[in-house]
Amino acid sequence: MVSCPVIIDSEEITGVWYRRGHFSFSSVENIKDSSIRRYLINEEEKLRDFIDNIFALNFKHLNRYEDNKINKLVTLVYASTVGLAVPFTFISSDVKNICDITLED
Fold first, then answer.
1. CA dihedral in degrees (9, 15, 17, 22; nearest 10)?
2. Mean pLDDT of 60-83
3. Residue pair 31/40 in contact by the 8 Å Cβ criterion
4. How far is CA 93 from CA 73, 78, 99, in A?
5. Which of 19, 40, 74, 84 makes an SS bond possible with 79, Cβ 3.0 to 4.6 Å?
6. 15-17/60-62 β-pairing
7. Mean pLDDT value across residues 14-29
Protein backbone atom coordinates (compact mmCIF):
# COMPACT_ATOMS: atom_id res chain seq x y z
CA MET A 1 0.00 0.00 0.00
CA VAL A 2 1.34 3.41 -0.97
CA SER A 3 0.26 6.40 1.06
CA CYS A 4 0.43 10.00 -0.03
CA PRO A 5 2.64 12.27 2.05
CA VAL A 6 0.91 14.83 4.21
CA ILE A 7 2.31 18.33 3.82
CA ILE A 8 1.39 20.90 6.43
CA ASP A 9 2.34 24.54 6.12
CA SER A 10 3.65 25.57 9.54
CA GLU A 11 2.15 29.03 9.01
CA GLU A 12 -1.30 27.42 9.22
CA ILE A 13 -0.71 25.80 12.63
CA THR A 14 -2.31 27.73 15.50
CA GLY A 15 -2.15 25.05 18.19
CA VAL A 16 -1.19 21.46 18.84
CA TRP A 17 -3.12 18.78 20.65
CA TYR A 18 -1.08 15.68 21.25
CA ARG A 19 -3.30 12.77 22.22
CA ARG A 20 -1.17 9.63 21.84
CA GLY A 21 0.97 7.75 19.37
CA HIS A 22 3.94 9.02 17.44
CA PHE A 23 5.20 10.06 14.05
CA SER A 24 6.79 7.36 11.97
CA PHE A 25 9.20 8.65 9.37
CA SER A 26 10.43 5.41 7.88
CA SER A 27 9.73 1.72 7.86
CA VAL A 28 12.63 0.26 9.83
CA GLU A 29 10.96 -3.13 10.33
CA ASN A 30 12.22 -4.26 6.91
CA ILE A 31 15.86 -3.51 7.71
CA LYS A 32 17.66 -6.78 8.43
CA ASP A 33 20.79 -5.39 10.11
CA SER A 34 19.84 -4.91 13.77
CA SER A 35 22.52 -2.28 14.46
CA ILE A 36 21.30 -0.12 11.56
CA ARG A 37 17.69 -0.65 12.65
CA ARG A 38 18.52 0.43 16.25
CA TYR A 39 20.40 3.46 14.91
CA LEU A 40 17.44 4.55 12.77
CA ILE A 41 14.97 4.00 15.62
CA ASN A 42 17.17 6.17 17.84
CA GLU A 43 17.38 8.88 15.18
CA GLU A 44 13.58 8.83 14.73
CA GLU A 45 13.16 9.27 18.48
CA LYS A 46 15.46 12.32 18.44
CA LEU A 47 13.50 13.79 15.55
CA ARG A 48 10.17 13.23 17.38
CA ASP A 49 11.63 14.93 20.49
CA PHE A 50 12.79 17.85 18.35
CA ILE A 51 9.37 18.30 16.72
CA ASP A 52 7.68 18.06 20.14
CA ASN A 53 9.93 20.81 21.48
CA ILE A 54 9.37 23.03 18.43
CA PHE A 55 5.61 22.66 18.91
CA ALA A 56 5.89 23.41 22.64
CA LEU A 57 8.01 26.52 22.08
CA ASN A 58 6.03 27.99 19.20
CA PHE A 59 2.38 27.01 19.59
CA LYS A 60 -0.31 26.75 22.20
CA HIS A 61 -0.41 23.09 23.06
CA LEU A 62 -2.43 20.55 24.97
CA ASN A 63 -0.25 17.65 26.13
CA ARG A 64 3.08 16.72 24.59
CA TYR A 65 4.76 13.68 23.10
CA GLU A 66 7.22 13.99 25.98
CA ASP A 67 4.36 13.11 28.36
CA ASN A 68 4.61 9.49 27.14
CA LYS A 69 7.82 9.14 29.10
CA ILE A 70 6.20 9.62 32.50
CA ASN A 71 7.45 7.23 35.15
CA LYS A 72 4.59 6.06 37.35
CA LEU A 73 6.82 5.78 40.42
CA VAL A 74 8.11 9.33 40.00
CA THR A 75 4.52 10.52 39.55
CA LEU A 76 3.51 8.82 42.81
CA VAL A 77 6.35 10.57 44.65
CA TYR A 78 5.31 13.97 43.21
CA ALA A 79 1.68 13.33 44.12
CA SER A 80 2.65 12.47 47.68
CA THR A 81 4.90 15.53 47.91
CA VAL A 82 2.05 17.90 47.04
CA GLY A 83 -0.29 16.25 49.54
CA LEU A 84 -2.34 13.95 47.33
CA ALA A 85 -3.41 10.63 48.81
CA VAL A 86 -1.28 7.88 47.29
CA PRO A 87 -2.28 4.23 47.65
CA PHE A 88 0.10 1.67 49.15
CA THR A 89 2.66 0.81 46.48
CA PHE A 90 4.57 -2.46 46.43
CA ILE A 91 7.30 -3.12 43.86
CA SER A 92 8.64 -6.61 43.29
CA SER A 93 9.81 -8.80 40.46
CA ASP A 94 8.77 -11.91 42.42
CA VAL A 95 5.22 -12.91 41.47
CA LYS A 96 4.85 -15.19 44.51
CA ASN A 97 5.82 -12.31 46.79
CA ILE A 98 3.18 -10.09 45.17
CA CYS A 99 0.54 -12.81 45.53
CA ASP A 100 1.43 -13.28 49.23
CA ILE A 101 1.09 -9.54 49.90
CA THR A 102 -2.31 -9.28 48.15
CA LEU A 103 -3.62 -12.36 49.96
CA GLU A 104 -2.69 -10.85 53.35
CA ASP A 105 -4.92 -7.79 52.75
1. 30
2. 84
3. yes
4. 15, 23, 11
5. 84
6. parallel
7. 78
